[in-house]
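can u pls check wat happens w/ flavin-adenine dinucleotide
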Amino acid sequence: MEKQIAIIGGGIVGATAAYYLSTLPGGQQVKVTLFDDGLGQATTAAAGIISPWLSKRRNQQWYQLAKAGADLYPQLIHDAQLGTDVYQQTGTIVTREIPTDLELLFDLAQERQQTAVTMGSVTTLTAAEVQAKIPLLANAQPGVFISGGARVDGAALVAGLLAQATAKNLTIRRERVHLTAQGQVVTSLGARQFDRVIVAAGAWAKELLAPLGITADVRPQKGQLIELAVKDYPIQENMPVLMPEGERDFVPFGHGKLIVGATHEDDGKFNLQVDPTVT
Ligand SMILES: Cc1cc2nc3c(=O)[nH]c(=O)nc-3n(C[C@H](O)[C@H](O)[C@H](O)COP(=O)(O)OP(=O)(O)OC[C@H]3O[C@@H](n4cnc5c(N)ncnc54)[C@H](O)[C@@H]3O)c2cc1C
């Protein structure tokens, strides 16, 4: 008998679920409907750095989840046959001005490397070596290079995954839905029962799950970044991502696209206004 599955949210999480559901053997027996209103989607706004290994967050569950996510990317890109314009392991460079900070970072990287296969190799770089890898810099600092670090174009990834799934068993509905206490999905056409509901609503998960009596400790955080078109320094496709101290990460894509940012603003609201005073 045909199974009906709903996915609420079409960012990286929902699109990946939709893609893998479309590849199941006997996929014709599964019909998937993805609901997404696209309002403020983090995936299409993100800087796209995939390098969670040197995070100093103490939350071990968060780290294990982020590490598993980084591990999944190469497999996902291979399975969906997407190119280096979408995802590439260019390596990431994390720099520190103070030598003892750099040593601590290197020690942490070596420790994390023991249990993180996708991280690749870890090396220290002098300021001149960092400069050589990223010639756009004016004042390079020494850093730690992680060869498995990557950058992803979230919008292109989601578009690629959803296009493939739509060609098989996926229907996309561009609308906001909510859940009833019984787990029905309420759409503009009324309440509908599905065999399974996958909640991939990102920062909206808390409000979506509330009617079911489920508390999700998820809060919105505003992020702003700048996308630059670099004219005079052609950016090579494999130029590494740079992560200096602070919020000015530097994410070079091919064809001269350069992203700088993002901010992390805990104003506790869904605030999509661009603030021109943030530099
Ligand atoms: C500026 C910025 C920079 C970032 N940079 C990085 C980075 O460099 N590296 C990194 O790892 N992460 C980064 N992130 C975080 C990363 O983007 C998110 O963790 C990730 O994209 C979340 O994916 P998601 O699928 O869970 O949610 P989202 O991509 O937010 O998708 C959720 C979708 O669900 C939809 N939705 C929610 N509720 C409903 C509903 N009731 N009905 C219908 N649709 C609904 C929303 O409209 C949205 O489209 C950044 C985020 C921002 C904002």
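The chain has two domains: 3-43+155-212, 78-152+221-261.
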